[in-house]
Amino acid sequence: MKIGEIIQRERTRLGLSQEKLAEQVGVSRQAVSKWELGGSLR
Question: Which of 4, 9, 35, 39 registers the highest number of CB atoms within 10 A of its CB?
Fold first, then answer.
């Protein structure tokens, strides 16, 4: 399982939108989307 799949699975399990997760970790929603799609992890 890839890290993006894990992030998405756990985010959904916790009932968080990409936007809510982004707010909680201090990044943009676009960053979370890139992580889940296997893009940049920065």
Answer: 35
